[in-house]
Amino acid sequence: MKTRIAELLQTAVDHLVANGTLPEGTAPAIRVDDSKDKAHGDFASNLAMMLAKPAGKPPRELAQALIDALPADNAISGVEIAGPGFLNFRVASDVLSDQIAALLADAELGVSAPAAPETVVIDYSAPNLAKEMHVGHLRSTIIGDALVRVFERLGHRVIRQNHVGDWGTQFGMLLAHFEANPADAEELLLADLEGFYQAAKKQFDADPAFAERARALVVSMQSGDAECMALWHRFNDITLKHADALYARLGVLLTRDNLDGESRYNDDLPRVVADLDAAGLLTEDAGAKCVFLDEFTNKAGDPLPLIIQKADGGYLYATSDLATIRLRIGEYQCDRSLYVVDKRQHLHFQQVFAVARAAGFLPESAHFEHLGFGTMNGEDGRPFKTRAGGTVKLATLLDEAVERAARVVAEKLPNASSEEAALISERVGIAAVKYADLSKNRSTDYTFSFDGMLSFDGNTAPYLLYACARMASLMRRCDAAGITAASVPALEMDAEVELAKHLARYTQTLDRVAERGLPNLLCNYLFELASHYSTFYEACPVLNSEPAVASSRFALSSLTHRVLVDGLKLLGIDALDRM
Questions:
Q1: Do 409 and 486 share a domain, yes or no?
Q2: Which residue, 70, 301, 404, 537, is the most exposed by fewest CB within 10 angstroms?
């Protein structure tokens, strides 16, 4: 419908230009925001309000002129002016019914393969090796996973990348400490490894001889020393087993096949430096090799460097990030690469992308974007911590969420078996944590609240899961009553029309999520869908209606359930049939 509405509006604008109501050359390109059925011009501004000034008319008066100039179209049952001059189009009920019928008959719910699928690299999660995952890794992990699912659902080729820090000085410290305090590598647990790391870091900072030995062991690693590499593999495996277990519990799609460690790029780092030098971009500053670009300065106007190689010969994150760009362009031939990383790294990525383009590593045709996210804060407005002020382990957070969910489930389903209650508690607890995060705009900070995320009221996972369960129950009762779903539902009640209009926007919502990298747009859509269905359920009885009406409403209920289940799946949340 958006294309048809845009065409109608363009015809109306052309008519107003022809009759002198609008000066020539003042009308913008027209597009339509399907999410609200409002006609918009460039920059998402209202068309009538944009054109009112050049026309010299009040916005509502010009809006009426646009309506008067619209050609008749059977697909549009009416157009209304809202607010200061918004144009609200009402789609004809038979056209809307046909759209819903098409969705009912389509296993893909209207999502069709793109004419030109893109190769999309999504860089996310990136836990610290030799350490247990903590709450700071949650946002990157689940936002990245949701975007992976959406891009794949839209038919694009997605390459998942878990860019872990598995190389460098920290492993030299671990090796040096292990050498001085020998233990059985096969018996080491992650807690032991964390203790090793903390002790090694402390000694590294205090003991120059230990620090020198740690750096020497890094060189041995880089040279492929068999003993060092065996321990390196063991240290990595211990950490990754822990991460794998958490990914499985969170329902995240990352596997060992998606690992993209810094070690992968070790051999390319000298070539990155050489190629930047050959491109005339490197400048030596206090012994370090840097790139200075005119567009990056500090508040005083002084140039900001991107350090490529330290004075001691060591490489930095920027160097390996430039190497990853080369691989993603050269080997993966990606069209788009999304970095789901803390928003505080925004300047770093802006500099890296700019240097990569200046060096010819990154062509203008490829879209590389940093999808920054804010922090998860406690009730005090500060980054989420334990009561003692320490970092909250991710596994601990999930355990508490499931324990709290179990208490809620015990109240809601007192007759459930222990096995069913445990399954529902795990699903609800994990879903609540994920949805509470995903439903917030990723670029903003948000306050974490167990009570809020486990509430059955408002935009929460329990609310949506309960809505799914109610729909599943209704469909079971319809099946038992012999009611079948109509192939073309009749849309007569306002609640039916509003629900159908929202269902018809599903594919556009997924497109916007992919375009903007914002999973919260899908969360908002699903919450509004469940709210529309609640209104429909109260106003439009299904089981107690005459057969034709019941069949039509059963079809709407079935489609709503399918869309809600599909949308939750794209967020990494499995629906429940009973709650």
A1: no
A2: 301
Quote the tokens at residue 454: 């486990």
Q: Does the pLDDT of residue 40 top 50, yes or no?
A: no
482 and 506 together in one domain: yes
Helix, strand, coil percentages (3-state) for the chain, rounded to 5, are 55, 15, 30
In tens, the pLDDT along 64-77 reads: 888 888 888 777 77
CATH code for the domain of 538: 1.10.730.10
For residues 415 and 478, membership in a common domain is answered with no
Q: Are residues 446 and 477 in the same domain?
A: no
CB atoms under 10 Å from CB of 63, counted, come to 27
Instruction: Among 258, 273, 304, identify where a domain stops.
Output: 258
Whether 526 is covered by a domain: the verdict is: yes
Q: State both tokens at 476.
A: 């079971």
Question: Confidence class of residue 30 from pLDDT cuts 50, 70 and 90?
Answer: low
* Lookup result for tokens 């459930």: 416
Can you tell me whether residue 482 is helix, strand or coil? coil
Q: Confirm if 169 and 215 have CB atoms less than 8 A apart.
A: yes
Please, how many CA atoms are within 13 Å of residue 567, restricted to the half-sphere of its CB?
Answer: 35
Beta carbons of 140 and 374 less than 8 angstroms apart: no
- Mean pLDDT, residues 218-234: 87
Residue 273 lies in a domain: no
- Which of 221, 236, 258 represents a domain boundary (last residue)? 258
**Measured distance CA(220)–CA(114) in Å, rounded:** 49
Residues 494, 555 within the same domain: yes
Instruction: Report yes or no on 148 lying in a domain.
Output: no
C-beta of residue 283 within 8 angstroms of C-beta of residue 292: yes
The answer, yes or no, to whether residue 42 has pLDDT greater than 50, is no
Specify the residue for token string 């140039």: 303
Residues 7 and 79 in one domain: yes
Pair 360, 279: CB distance under 8 Å: yes
> Average pLDDT in the 503-517 region?
96
Mapping DSSP to helix (H, G, I), strand (E, B) and coil, where does residue 114 land? coil
| Cα dist from 174 to 164, 202, 231, 326, 391, whole Å | 16, 11, 9, 30, 21
Strand ranges of the sheet holding 31-33, from the earlier edge strand across to the other edge? 31-33, 38-40, 86-91, 76-82
**Are 490 and 514 in a shared domain?**
yes
Please enumerate in sequence order all residues whose Cβ is within 8 A of that of 251, keeping only pairs 6 or more positions apart, or say none.
145, 430, 572, 573, 574
pLDDT of 91: 72
At 43, is the pLDDT very low, low, confident or very high (cuts 50, 70, 90)?
very low
Give a yes or no: residue 109 inside a domain. no
The first and second tokens of residue 545, run together, are 């209606």
Question: By percentage, how much of the chain surpasses pLDDT 70?
Answer: 94
Give the C-alpha separation, 551 to 488, whole Å. 10
Is the pLDDT at 79 greater than 50? The verdict is: yes
Q: What confidence category does residue 4 fall into, taking pLDDT thresholds of 50, 70 and 90? A: confident
Tokens matching residue 307? 């350090």
- 295-324 confidence digits (pLDDT tens): 999 888 899 999 999 888 888 899 999 999
**Global pTM exceeds 0.85:** yes
> Residue 28 class from Cβ within 10 Å (0-12 exposed, 13-18 middle, 19+ buried)?
middle
Q: Which domain holds residue 80?
A: 2-91
How many structural domains comprise the chain?
A: 4
Shared-domain flag, residues 465 and 495:
yes
* Per-residue pLDDT at 252 exceeds 80: yes
